[in-house]
Amino acid sequence: MRRLIVRRSPVHGKGVFAMRPLAAGERVLEYKGEITAWRDALRRHRREGVAGHTFLFGLSDGRVIDGSRGGNSARWLNHACMPNCETIEDDGRIFIHTVRRIEPGEELFIEYLLALDDPSDEEARLQYACRCAVADCRQSMLADAR
């Protein structure tokens, strides 16, 4: 039986949902895509960007995984201020692990912790408003809102 499905999310666009119970600490996905330089990924995103979506996942070595190229269902994980999953980098790869038990039908979330080149750009900040609606929502997907 499949563990996950991508479908319409009440939070934003598409989301990833559990099809069966998932145990705490379970590795559920790898974030896949083309590994490239940030400069190239941003240029491509500006040129071809899917409205309202960014499929770029930064690696600790300064490169990025571009989920819009050869990506998988992990690119549809939505942000939440109190996520039920976490990302773990291992040798240039990103894995998604649950942080608690997840029930069938429940949407999987990670915390984006995005950064802006210009933190004072209010228009850019508004583009990253959070929609998770948890009780302690920070109202932002940006790391500095923490």
Describe the structure.
With 146 residues, this protein is an alpha+beta fold. The protein is 12% helix and 29% strand. The chain contains two helices and ten strands. A three-stranded antiparallel sheet has the order 3-9-8, with no helix packed on it. It has a three-stranded antiparallel sheet with strand order 4-6-5. The longest helix is centred in the first third of the chain and has 11 residues. The protein is globular, with a radius of gyration of 15 Å. The relative contact order is 0.21. The model has no long low-confidence stretch (mean pLDDT 89).
Please write out the topology.
Layout: E1 4-8, E2 14-18, E3 27-31, E4 34-37, H1 38-48, E5 56-58, E6 63-66, E7 78-79, E8 85-90, E9 93-98, E10 109-110, H2 122-127
Parallel strand pairs: 7-10
Antiparallel strand pairs: 1-2, 3-9, 4-6, 5-6, 8-9
Counting DSSP H or I runs of 4 or more residues, the number of helices is: 2
Number of strand elements:
10
| Integer-rounded radius of gyration | 15 Å
Q: Look at the helices and sheets and give the structural class.
A: alpha+beta
Report how far apart the termini are: 38 Å
Report the biggest beta sheet as strand number plus sense, adding barrel if it closes: 3 strands, antiparallel
Brief sketch in words of this structure:
By secondary structure, the chain is an alpha+beta fold. It has helices at about 40-50, 120-125; strands at about 5-10, 15-20, 25-30, 35, 55-60, 65, 80, 85-90, 95-100, 110.
Question: Which features characterize this protein?
Answer:
146 residues, alpha+beta, three-stranded antiparallel sheet, 29% strand
